[in-house]
TrEMBL record:
<keyword id="KW-0720">Serine protease</keyword>
<dbReference type="GO" id="GO:0030288">
    <property type="term" value="C:outer membrane-bounded periplasmic space"/>
</dbReference>
<dbReference type="GO" id="GO:0006508">
    <property type="term" value="P:proteolysis"/>
</dbReference>
<keyword id="KW-0378">Hydrolase</keyword>
<dbReference type="GO" id="GO:0004175">
    <property type="term" value="F:endopeptidase activity"/>
</dbReference>
<dbReference type="GO" id="GO:0008236">
    <property type="term" value="F:serine-type peptidase activity"/>
</dbReference>
<feature type="domain" description="Tail specific protease">
    <location>
        <begin position="28"/>
        <end position="218"/>
    </location>
</feature>
<dbReference type="GO" id="GO:0007165">
    <property type="term" value="P:signal transduction"/>
</dbReference>
<keyword id="KW-0645">Protease</keyword>
<protein>
    <recommendedName>
        <fullName>Tail specific protease domain-containing protein</fullName>
    </recommendedName>
</protein>
<dbReference type="InterPro" id="IPR029045">
    <property type="entry name" value="ClpP/crotonase-like_dom_sf"/>
</dbReference>
<dbReference type="InterPro" id="IPR004447">
    <property type="entry name" value="Peptidase_S41A"/>
</dbReference>
<dbReference type="Pfam" id="PF03572">
    <property type="entry name" value="Peptidase_S41"/>
</dbReference>
<dbReference type="InterPro" id="IPR036034">
    <property type="entry name" value="PDZ_sf"/>
</dbReference>
<dbReference type="InterPro" id="IPR005151">
    <property type="entry name" value="Tail-specific_protease"/>
</dbReference>
Amino acid sequence: MAVDQAVTRIRGTLGTTVKLLIDRSGTGATMEFSITRALIKVPTVSWSKKTGDIAYLRIHNFFGNVEGDYVNAVKEIKAGGMSKIILDLRGNPGGLLNASITIAADFIPSGKLIVSADFGAGKQRSDFTSPGGGALEDTKIVVLVDGASASASEILAGALKDSRNITLVGETTFGKGTVQELIQLAGGTLLKLTTAEWIRPSGVSINKHGITPDIIVPMTLEDKQAGRDPQLDKAISVLQGM
């Protein structure tokens, strides 16, 4: 089941209950949980200081005021004198395309390609390039991704990997890279139509392929239960060597 399909089924009226059957990968066992639906406020951006001059910047999603929250976080990071950043896109399901492109442009020099929309045979591609002048064009960066990094977060990760040769650490991303439009039909019905695919600067489609990181570091259930984060540890190690 795709992430967006699961989210659609889980969402519902506040205060009602949803039952989840969880398949524990590699064990063959399943567990059932009953969860009461509630309003959850998820931050768009958060950051903290790690060892030395390394800042940890997490973009949780590309909704709401993500661009403003991102700009404020970067200002605080630079004011703190930190010169290296771990950009964490793990678990980021995507969101607003324009937000991911705007944030990508903060890292990527002028004229460099961020992403292209391929509308099919015989149709011209739409290229999105960086206007330049970004605050982090010369900053040392490592990006964290995993199987739940999807859509707009994959566009950002792909742009940083291809157009700035930034190292990606973690696990292969989800592979959701289509352009979809809602078309109003008679009787109030809506048709969701896929019209294009997102293409990375390298020429590779994001859709169904995902993005394989430069350094693959699995995150096991045991790691999570023990509070370990080998992916973050590796990212710190890579940055310390820069």
